[in-house]
Amino acid sequence: MTEVRVPTLGESVSEATVATWFKKPGDSVAVDEMLCELETDKVTVEVPSPVAGTLSDIVANEGDTVGVDALLANVSEEGNAGPEETKPREEKATSEDGPASPSKGSESVDVMVPTLGESVSEATVSTWFKKVGDSVEQDEMLCELETDKVSVEVPAPTSGTLTEILAEEGSTVEAGGKLAVMGGSGGASASPSKAPDDNQYSTPDAGNAGPGKDIKDGPAAEKAMAEAGVKRDDVKGTGKDGRATKSDVAAAVAAANSAPKASSAPASAPRAPSPAEDADREERVKMTRLRQTIARRLKDAQNAAAILTTYNEVDMTEVMALRNQYKDQFEKKHGVRLGFMSFFTKACCHALKEVPEVNAEIDGTDIVYKNFVHMGVAAGTPQGLVVPVIRDADSMSFAEIEKAIGEKGKRARDGKLSMAEMQGGTFTISNGGVYGSLMSSPILNPPQSGILGMHKIQDRPMVVNGEIKIRPMMYLALSYDHRIVDGKGAVTFLVRVKEALEDPRRLLMDL
Fold first, then answer.
1. Is 486 a catalytic residue?
2. Where is composition skewed (Low complexity) in this entry (predicted)?
3. How far apart are CA 381 and CA 415, in angstroms?
4. Tens digit of each residue's pLDDT (9 = 90 or more) over 117-131
């Protein structure tokens, strides 16, 4: 058996995504024949077969993220596998053990924790889709793992029977650790009921799902649909090839709950439930690793920093007029919509130059001033709040900022952000206005010393040049670490942001 591993990807490139497999398990391959294609941030890498033989199994499936030298697949060399080997094995099993089941004579196969991503060393076993003794097909999902940022599905490395589960649900496992053991690689395919069939995926349930033939939703999505009682027809799949994801199921459930429901008058006055009855109606769910991380970091921020918040309000008339005037030309030229976030990012970058302590951090007894702005942009996802970082935002144009925000936001919603993309921020903007928030006090994102909270734009009567006029107003909130930022600096920063937004020409003139 020869291992196929990820080749060197180039300087400063440590991971890649498996884009396409050109071969499937059981296919014959020649030396240097292309097995799969990997994609990195810079190039596409083809992986050839190191030997002639048969592709035994695929360890890293399409869409998986793999590191340098990670195991991709195994190839059985010519003469070591295939029809020539099958008959002697069967004869040996018959002569030594009598009439043997097809699974006998097969070696056990370990199910390992896959590569979890850069700087992610452990995960929690969320759900087992199979139990000990179940027969499984190759690449059928065995379990789901949760890390601080994404969910990882673990497929069966081969067909057979799940003989032992080593990591139960809720347990913490490390990258490269052993999850389970499989045996009897022929057992799952020996039964007539498991024989391949052209209509294998064309049952009514699968056929109505939307994905094409031979495409199934992930077990996590199927489990979520079963638990929520949602039909596949009601779920719009946004995954690869139209597959449904857990977030798609959550969206379908939310849509169903928001639909008006018929109400019926009660026959008698409602009776207050007892505490015991309340307990029966409660649901206890273990916090995800991402939610645990968010909770821990927010509490650490409260414990470590002296957080204060100062408020102001900004008249959005000029920004909205400028945006409405140029948004069509902007999108036509740059291929991205002109939003409000680029204006706020630019305004904050200008203000941070004048009040650098808001862009600094405390390291022991030192203050570290940053001569650059790595802007964190808080984004809500189905799994929780994450803060991807736009590096050197102070040197970007409006179009570059909008493109970066759009790309980071999409990766955040898809759960594809790496830890490196959420580290190193020097200041953060959080837009609670998209959810309808009128005013709030954002909490710091350590070790940063400042965070700007944006809110809902609301028409209000304002006195302008001695006259009462209706203006689109937004409350702004700056939370800051009072250990390093004085009240004067915080107020000055917020006033500079207000001035830049109420007269956007100041941004162009660097005033």
1. yes
2. 250-276
3. 8
4. 655 678 888 888 888
Residues 106-109: contacts with CB under 8 Å, at least 24 apart: 106/160, 106/183, 106/184, 106/185, 106/186, 106/187, 107/183, 107/185, 108/163, 108/181, 108/182, 108/183, 109/157, 109/158, 109/160, 109/181, 109/182, 109/183, 109/185
DSSP codes joined into one string, 353-377: HHSGGGG-EEETTEEE--SS--EEE
332, burial (CB in 10 Å: exposed 0-12, middle 13-18, buried 19+): exposed
- Could you give the CA distance from residue 207 to residue 216 in angstroms, rounded to a whole number? 9
Q: Which domains does the chain have, with CATH numbers?
A: 1-81 (2.40.50.100), 102-191+218-237 (2.40.50.100), 290-509 (3.30.559.10)
32 is catalytic: no
Pairing of strands 450-454, 427-431: parallel
Q: What is the pTM of this model?
A: 0.49
Which one of the listed residues 97, 455, 486, 503 is annotated catalytic? 486
Q: Tell me which of 27, 69, 241, 482 is the catalytic residue.
A: 482
Q: How far is CA 412 from CA 150, 339, 415, in A?
A: 10, 18, 5
**pLDDT of 421-441, one tens digit each?**
888 899 999 988 888 888 999
8 A C-beta contact, residue 137 and residue 156:
yes
Which of 259, 236, 258, 257 minimizes the C-alpha distance to 248? 236
